[in-house]
Design goal:
Structural class: alpha+beta
Distance between the termini: 60 Å
Radius of gyration: 22 Å
Number of helices: 4
CATH class of the largest domain: Alpha Beta
Shape: elongated
Largest sheet: 4 strands, antiparallel
CATH architecture of the largest domain: Alpha-Beta Complex
Oligomer: single chain
Helix content: 10-25%
Number of domains: 2
């Protein structure tokens, strides 16, 4: 049984939710998101609260119950407050700068790496080693942050690379066999 799916979704003030058949559209002060809904679930809106219930008790329906409830809740939060991911660049000489709307990285290669920021995401570079990504779609913000991090993943020996601000890189020592000889 999905416990997450049973929680009602409180619709925040200033957010408009429209369910038309199998389509949902959520409008808020930051923008508009839409998604196709599953046929095996019922969506009922009563007094500013949206409930997601199952039509049957089959295993695939149970699996999607909590997923669709959270997707709708994330859409409501995204259009009202938005999502933010912060990345930090560690390493001597590793830098980032804005080049129009794109990000230009200096990551120790013999050429700058240019990352084109997709539509719907805004990137800010407050200093040379910090990137702040903002958007209304939680999945898109996380995907862009993961792609930027994959340009130069943090390594455990020197700690160089691009990491999330909350991420802790466990450091390893260098080879100890060479030191004992």
């Amino acid at each position: 049984m999905s416990r997450i799916g049973l929680d009602p979704i409180k619709i925040k003030e200033g957010v408009e939710v429209n369910i038309n058949g199998n389509d949902i559209t959520v409008k808020g002060k930051l923008g508009e998101l839409s998604m196709k809904l599953d046929d095996n679930l019922n969506y009922e809106m009563v007094d500013g609260v949206l409930n997601v219930t199952r039509k049957n008790e089959l295993l695939p329906t149970k699996a999607l119950h909590g997923t669709y409830r959270m997707l709708i809740a994330n859409m409501i939060e995204g259009v009202s407050e938005g999502y933010t991911k912060k990345l930090e660049i560690m390493g001597v000489g590793y830098r980032v700068k804005m080049q129009g709307k794109d990000l230009s990285f200096s990551l120790g290669y013999n050429h700058p790496v240019v990352y084109v920021v997709p539509e719907g995401i805004t990137a800010e570079v407050p200093d040379e080693v910090t990137i702040i990504l903002k958007g209304i779609d939680k999945q898109k913000v996380g995907q862009v942050a993961a792609k930027i991090r994959s340009l130069k993943k943090p390594e455990p020996y020197k700690g160089k690379g691009i990491k999330y601000d909350y991420e802790v890189i466990r450091r390893k020592s260098a080879k100890s066999a060479a030191a004992t000889k």
